[in-house]
Task: inverse folding
């Protein structure tokens, strides 16, 4: 396409050969049209390499049209080779050498150019081939790396899915047995059973976190069932899923405050934030819901040692923070669910402690993207 446009522009500089330049432009546009046909997607990956042959022919016609001037032929010849290096294997690049050389030399011979001009082919062609081979090698390495990463991602996804779905059922049985044994166990045995239950809970949290990650990865954009709820009722119901030993929670929510959220996803957000606050912070834990500038703001604050500034910047990343008590997935899941609602998740310093904040567009606000 570019070569055709340049041929049309060349008519202004060389009106004597306007008919030839029009022919070159028409051929360039014809090759470009064929290259854009959708049928190429259904053919062999190497099939478009045939387009190189008419391209070389048009380059030769262009040199002949300009009376043997190869100043425009050389750069476009290298450009064709660069295109071929990005898309085709080495044997095709080497097979281009003969037609490319003929396309360069024949017009020069026909127009009776000096031997010095003819000799330029022995410099240009090796350079064009070398450039193409370098590009081909780099493109091949990138394709191999991409394929390797795709295989790794496929393996990771399969492993996460297997762990998330297959581990939870036997863990539930193990936990039930441990709790039953603990009922009549003497104190020394009870302490050991408590340790086993804590580790079982940790593995369960890991499996649930991996299941959430897998669900987010597979769904891409989560489908939400958003409705308007009483914020106080919504938070109180979510608290029923949190064991009393995990968090001592105080609510600061006005009776008239509402939230326009997916109920299940909101519960997931709040439970993750409460679990994080109970694990790393200190009581009291305060849950606040407010509205400002069209945004509903959920805040879960603890009164622990707080979080360093440099850590707060990456706190909501995947596997950003992990410990013997956590997996580093909970806050990343919170961020994904917040963004699916059109909001955001972040941490704010408090004295003492830290506040985990999640915002949601309120019902009827400009940021409210209603679900169909």
Result:
């Amino acid at each position: 396409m570019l070569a055709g446009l340049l041929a049309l522009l060349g008519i202004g500089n060389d009106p004597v050969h306007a008919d030839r330049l029009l022919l070159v432009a028409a051929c360039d546009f014809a090759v470009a049209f064929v290259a854009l046909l959708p049928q190429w997607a259904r053919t062999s990956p190497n099939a478009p390499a045939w387009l190189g042959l008419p391209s070389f022919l048009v380059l030769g016609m262009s040199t002949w049209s300009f009376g043997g001037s190869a100043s425009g032929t050389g750069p476009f010849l290298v450009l064709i080779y660069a295109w071929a290096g990005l898309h085709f294997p080495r044997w095709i690049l080497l097979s281009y050498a003969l037609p490319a050389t003929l396309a360069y030399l024949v017009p020069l011979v026909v127009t009776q150019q000096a031997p010095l001009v003819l000799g330029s082919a022995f410099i240009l062609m090796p350079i064009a081939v070398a450039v193409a081979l370098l590009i081909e090698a780099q493109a091949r390495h990138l394709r191999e790396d991409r394929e390797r990463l795709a295989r790794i991602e496929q393996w990771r996804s399969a492993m996460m899915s297997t762990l998330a779905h297959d581990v939870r059922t036997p863990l539930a049985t193990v936990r039930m047995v441990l709790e039953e044994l603990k009922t009549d166990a003497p104190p020394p045995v009870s302490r050991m059973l408590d340790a086993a239950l804590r580790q079982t809970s940790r593995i369960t949290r890991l499996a649930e976190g991996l299941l959430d990650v897998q669900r987010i990865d597979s769904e891409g954009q989560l489908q939400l069932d958003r409705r308007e709820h009483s914020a106080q009722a919504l938070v109180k119901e979510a608290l029923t899923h949190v064991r009393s030993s995990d968090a001592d929670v105080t609510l600061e929510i006005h009776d008239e405050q509402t939230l326009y959220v997916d109920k299940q996803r909101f519960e997931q957000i709040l439970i993750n934030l409460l679990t994080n606050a109970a694990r790393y912070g200190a009581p009291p834990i305060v849950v606040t819901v407010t509205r400002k500038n069209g945004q509903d703001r959920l805040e879960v604050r603890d009164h622990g040692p707080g979080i360093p500034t440099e850590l707060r910047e990456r706190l909501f990343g995947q596997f950003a923070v992990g410990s013997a008590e956590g997996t580093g997935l909970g806050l990343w899941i919170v961020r994904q669910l917040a963004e699916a609602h059109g909001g955001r998740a972040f941490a704010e310093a408090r004295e003492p402690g830290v506040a985990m904040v999640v915002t949601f567009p309120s019902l009827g606000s400009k940021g409210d993207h209603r679900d169909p």
Notes: DSSP finds 14 helices and seven strands in the chain. The domain at 226-361 is CATH 3.30.565.10 (Heat Shock Protein 90). Confidence is low (pLDDT under 50) at residues 323-327.
